[in-house]
Amino acid sequence: MTDVVMPQMGESIVEGTLTKWLKKPGDHVERDEPLFEISTDKVDTEIPSPAAGTLAEVMVEEGKTVGINTVVARIEENGASGAAAQPPVQPPAAAAQRPVAAEQPPVGAGHARPAPAAPVEMPPPPAEESASPAEPTGPLSPLVRKLARENNIDLSRVKGTGAGGRISKQDVESYLAQQPADTVPAAPGRPPAPVPAAPPAAAPASAPLAPAHPAKTRIEPLSTMRIKIAEHMVLSKRTSPHVTTIHRVDMTAVAQMRERNKASFQANYGFSLTYLPFITRAAVVALRQFPLLNASLDGNNIVYHNEINIGIAVALENGLIVPVIRGADEKNVLGLQRAVVDLAARARSRQLKPDEVLGGTFSITNFGSFGSLVGTPIINQPQVAILGIGTVDKTPVVINDAIAIRSICHLSLSFDHRLVDGALADQFMTKIKQVLEGWTEEVQ
Amino acid sequence: MRNCCLRELGRMDYPSALELQRRLVADRQQGKIADHLLLVEHPHVVTLGRNGHRENLLASDEILERAGVAFHPTDRGGDITYHGPGQLVGYPILDLRDWKRDVGAYVRAIEEVLIGTLADFGIAAGRIPKLTGVWVQERKIAAIGVHISRWVTSHGFALNVSTDLSYFQYIVPCGLTKPVTSMAALGVRATMEDVGYSLAAHFNRVFDYPMPLAAPAFAGARKRELI
Questions:
Q1: Is the confidence metric ipTM above 0.90 for this complex?
Q2: Which chain A positions have a beta carbon within 8 Å of B78's beta carbon?
Q3: Is A10 within 8 Å of B78 when comparing Cβ atoms?
Q4: Count of other CB atoms within 10 angstroms of residue A241
Q5: β-strand B45-48 against B70-73: which pairing, if any?
Q6: pLDDT 10s per residue in chain B (227 long)?
Q7: Is B5 a catalytic residue?
Q8: Contact: B129, A348; criterion CB under 8 Å
Q9: Looking at the annotation, which residues of A are catalytic?
């Protein structure tokens, strides 16, 4: 028997999706003949057979993603007798302890597994299997243990499809999905002996139903990040009465400064110069003047923060994260732009350190980069305000009774009305507007 | 010695280019020929990767036919995509055993070639982690889909030079609901030829060939100079 494994297709590639079997169990295959196809990151690859012989067993079905070096099939070389290759001299008691045993359908299931061309297959273990609900011997990840605990699953009944029959999270989930709600054991702890009839009966009963009713919905568990975002958004809305005020800001002076420095930024530092660091800088100046916006509420106390640490919302593929620019008041536009580029890049490649998303005292979110004109952001607790940046567009405006074309941006501030009143919020915004409209500070 | 032959095919229909690739892949696997880079422009065609989802094709066969768009399932990676006039399509036929034996590195290298090419035209393009392809901000400017058989690559990439982007309305490109863009849409006027030269030069650099890409004899001297 030759094991066929998920090949390593490159250093950075740790798993692959088996997309298609080009041979069926029982088929003859030549050495180097394409045996199956895998897909990794927009690349489909045909995998040749490592040996000539008969495809004896396929362990990974189409559509499954498995780690590299996972055994996906076994090939029985021609001429080699199965019995000689691996004598099945396991005493039945020992067999029950092996992970393989857990893969066998429990005795009495009524659907004997058709095992053509697989003489090496161990005979189904006799009733010893049900003597004690033995834990699978393979290593179990903490996540799998937790899932099993929370859902009251006897792991010895879950078929592992990972390396060496290891049980993965997906295995547990698909096991759960197969169980009708009422057959999941309700009693805590393990059942004294598995009831042989229930689980196997459940699977065939539910399987034929599926095609009859094409699904109208698709259920997918939330990612951990999504759960955290959801919790935080609800918490923030419940905690703070949000009010949003919107100011129109003429960014023409900033646009000119940006235009003058864009090329040298790209040339000297390797990143572009955007509007974000200018607005961040203006917010820092305003926060210094109005420290109540750089505070938190703790019971009946106001906590004034002496540091100005600005959180910058970064959109990720399927979520968002708010890394923090520490000591933002000590940075000029260049320093702020550098920090933004660095944090955003590391946020997107998931290389932020945990403390880099903590300790923010005020946040900024730039939805203008996605084309939004005006937004009403949700406060990042326990802060008391968040500044939203809309797009910067050339717009006709009236100046001294003449129509002029200016670069216009809408800034919105959502604030916690428990602590901040509208008058203060608008003074704060007016300060930001003043700084931006009369921009003179050099940027590097 | 590693060497790569550049072949500019001009306008060629999709099935013919596929057949040419098949022949070259077979020859490359047997070591009969050097690496190849095919550059081509296709008439309107929608192609679906092996693991693609037919539901990402938004138009019926009838609508496609009326719009003059062919439909072609293929064996490359990736989902659905559109090719058409104004799009520079590249099919590298490389033996990765001579390069890095690394499928991930290969895809990243193709992205680097495209990013370098776009930079030559003043376009700051980049990657989005986990979304293979080349992006200008959140818009996709070049798509990648690859097939590998015994470490020899086929299929490749498609860069929108002056593609009529309205044709993408018939599909959900690569199954992603992100917008597409082109060099022309970003205000860059460039001929397919010019983009091709620049691309060949970056291809040569990124894949580290010891000599400039050898254009076949019928290519003009000017081209060779530029490459």
A1: no
A2: 42
A3: no
A4: 11
A5: parallel
A6: 678 888 888 899 999 999 999 999 999 999 888 899 999 999 999 998 877 888 888 888 888 888 889 999 888 878 889 999 999 999 999 999 999 999 999 999 999 999 999 999 999 999 999 899 999 999 999 999 999 999 999 999 999 999 999 999 888 876 677 899 999 999 998 889 889 988 988 998 899 887 665 443 333 333 333 32
A7: no
A8: yes
A9: 417, 421
Nearest-by-Cβ selection for A41 from B101, B104, B137: B104
pLDDT digits (tens, 9 = 90+) for A118-140: 344 444 444 444 444 445 555 67
Tokens of A444: 């590097």
- Nearest Cα to Cα of residue A419 among A283, A243, A284: A243
Distance CA A40, CA A6 (A): 11
Query: Closest chain B residue to A34 measured between Cα atoms?
Result: B149
Q: Report yes or no: A32 at the B interface, CB cutoff 8 Å.
A: yes
Q: What gap in Å lies between CA A57 and CA A318, rounded to an integer?
A: 38
Is the CB of B102 less than 8 angstroms away from the CB of A348?
A: no
Contacts of A13 in chain B (CB under 8 A): 102-104
Q: Is B127 helix (H, G, I), strand (E, B) or coil?
A: strand
Instruction: Say whether B103 and A13 touch across the interface (CB within 8 A).
Output: yes
Sheet containing strand A310-312, edge to edge, reads A242-250, A402-416, A385-399, A362-365, A310-312, A324-325
Per DSSP bridges, beta strands A15-21 and A65-67 are: antiparallel
Quick: pLDDT tens for B42-56. 999 999 887 788 888
Q: Which helix (H) or strand (E) holds B206?
A: helix B192-206
SS3 content of chain A, % helix, strand, coil (to 5): 35, 25, 40
CB contact under 8 Å between B50 and A37, yes or no, is yes
Cβ atoms of residues A126 and A107 within 8 Å: yes
pTM of the predicted model over 0.90:
no
- Inter-chain contacts counted by CB atoms under 8 A, chains A and B: 82
Shortest CA distance from A8: residue in chain B: B102
Q: How far is A311 from chain B (nearest CA, A)?
A: 21
Question: Chain A: residue nearest B151 by CA?
Answer: A45
Tell me which chain B residues have a C-beta less than 8 angstroms from the C-beta of A19: 50-51
Give the torsion sign (CA, A262, A263, A264, A267). Answer: positive
Distances (CA, A) of A255 to A247, A413, A443: 18, 22, 12
Residues whose CB is less than 8 angstroms from the CB of residue B199 and which lie 6 or more positions away in sequence, other chains included: B39, B88, B90, B113, B114, B117, B159
Alpha carbon distances (Å) from B60 to A214, B46, B209: 21, 12, 45
Residue B66 C-alpha, separation from nearest chain A C-alpha, in angstroms: 30
Which of A191, A176, A193 has the alpha carbon at shortest distance from A132?
A193
Burial A80-99 (b: 16+ CB within 10 A, else e): eebeeeeeeebeeeebbbbb
Q: State residue A161's pLDDT score.
A: 72
Task: Choose among A34, A39, A350: nearest Cβ to B77.
Answer: A39
Which of A15, A37, A38, A43 should be substituted to probe chain B, the one whose Cβ sees the most B Cβ atoms within 10 Å? A43
- Render pLDDT for A269-296 as a digit per residue (tens, 0 to 9): 888 999 999 999 999 999 999 999 999 9
